[in-house]
Amino acid sequence: MTHTTHEFNRYADIRAALADPALVPDLPTVDGGPGGTSVAWLRATVARFSSGEPHRRRRALVEAELAGIEPAALRRAAAGQPEGETRVRVVRTLAEALGMPEPGAVAEAVIVVAGAYFGGTDAEAGADADNSVAWLVAQLVPGRADEAALEAAANRIGLLVQACAATAALVEASSGGDVPLARVLREVPPVRTTRRIAARATRVGDREVAVGDVVLLDLAAANHAHSIPLTFGTPPRLCPGRAHALALSEGLLRRPLTPFARLHHQATPLLLPNAWDYASAAALAAQDFEAIGTTSLGVAAAAGLPDGAAATVDATLTLARRLGQGSFLFTVDAEAGFSDDTEEVAELARKLHAAGAAGINLEDGRPDGTLTPAELHAAKIAAVKAAAPALFVNARTDTHWLGRQEEETAARLAIYEQAGADGVFVPGLSDPDGIADLTANLVVPLNILYTPTGPTLAELAALGVRRISLGSLLYRTALEAAVTTATGIRAGRRSDLKAPSYAEVQALVGA
Predict the structure, then answer these.
(1) Of 125, 124, 151, 127, which is closest to residue 137 (Cα–Cα)?
(2) Per-residue pLDDT of the chain (511 residues; tens, 9 = 90+)
(3) Measuring CA to CA, which residue among 194, 174, 156, 187 is closest to residue 86?
(4) Residue 105 CB burial class (10 angstroms; 0-12, 13-18, ≥19)
(5) Is the pTM for the entire model greater than 0.90?
(6) Which of 15, 78, 259, 327 is deepest in the core (most CB within 10 A)?
(7) Could you tell me the CA-to-CA distances from 57 to 23, 53, 117, 152 in Å, in that order?
């Protein structure tokens, strides 16, 4: 029977096809030895080429392997790898993290397997790959092993093979420049096409797909037509190793991280309290917070000016210059850059960096409650990175904060990270599912605004959030405490609020 090959390059069609259970991964054939521990056995046993319950079970094995590896530690290990062939460095780093013996030899064997893993190789190469699979299995499960142990071994090998192919391709495509990884993933995806076979009749877009038909999905073409790349797949086949692949890539590329940027790539999220003057910043720093942010509301209100109205550029610069005399890291909330002129925003960034700021917040919300066009906000981000490359740009979207165009959140964040944002911020978002959806696709760290009624710090960390801001909460709490204390004394009540002494405040300012 002759089967039809359907080629799709439209973003919506490819997303639908990837999520369609009727379309199963193509399991290519390969010349070589019989089953047992051959490449054919490997592909028939890994999560990538499985469907239904076997896929869920095998995917869980891969997720369990990755759960024991902290991406930040993987990044550091990759950065410490000696120079050499990219695939060797990728696999050796991951093999070491998995605790495998002889990681160098493992890397060489995995490279041989990867050459045959996707099919199309000749008999001689297939035999070499079969021998390499057998050797890798022997390292993982020496002696006789039951079916469960062999399945676990196969999926560990599959994990290494996937890293060898896709992660190495990402590193190669990103080498020799400072183009943001998010843009590389969209413009030069490491996996350009993928195939599916129709296990039963289905419909994709405007086409009927019969049983046995081949569905060829052009991911590269779809990426070019949409801001959110399909590089890491879509549910239920979202890549479980996304964070680890990015950490490996960033480590091997050895792009320098500032001390402030490193705080976004550690085991626990950065908790960022927001100050409104020097004393509040110094007091927080004295309590061992790793960095301090400013709050535009606090700065504006302290000056008797409205927030979000581009009225506090001078007050913001003055505060930044005073904070720069301290010994702590700080980032500045600069509203929307106080201008829609990208050169003016870039000049502000240069001044803030010269004052000692480690980062800047740029929001796309406008005083009238609308949103800045995403392309204009992206141009601001790019201008800031060009003017002050070491300044950490936290690109904020107010889709949830203003309750406008919330369905655009993911697309806006994708545009901002591709423009060079070092992190992205979505104040007003507290829904765990919404947060998880974003972290599943983002390349850069996600910042969420803490709310007393929202997820806890531990819950946000589990969702993949890397930075948690307190925003204007501390300033508003301080106002409430001041008013409560004053009115209580007027009413004859004693205040039980412990306050720092005069000398302690003087010491903060003096320090």
Answers:
(1) 151
(2) 678 999 999 999 999 999 999 999 887 655 544 456 789 899 999 999 998 899 999 999 999 999 999 999 999 999 999 999 999 999 999 999 999 999 999 999 999 999 988 776 666 677 899 999 999 999 999 877 789 999 999 999 999 999 999 999 999 999 988 899 999 999 999 889 988 999 999 999 999 999 999 999 999 999 888 899 888 888 778 889 999 999 999 999 999 899 999 999 998 999 999 999 999 999 999 999 999 999 999 999 999 999 999 999 999 999 999 999 999 999 999 999 999 999 999 999 999 999 999 999 999 999 999 999 999 999 999 999 999 999 999 999 999 999 999 999 999 999 999 999 999 999 999 999 999 999 999 999 999 999 999 999 999 999 999 999 999 999 999 999 999 999 999 999 988 888 999 999 999 988 5
(3) 174
(4) middle
(5) yes
(6) 78
(7) 19, 6, 21, 10
Amino acid at 387: A
Q: Tokens 């601001």 — which residue?
A: 380
Q: Which of 161, 130, 131 is nearest to 47 (CA)?
A: 161
Q: In sequence order, what are the residues at sequence separation of 6 or more whose Cβ sits closer than 8 angstroms to the Cβ of residue 453?
A: 430
- For residue 183, the cross-strand partners are none
**Could you tell me the two tokens for 99?**
């605790």
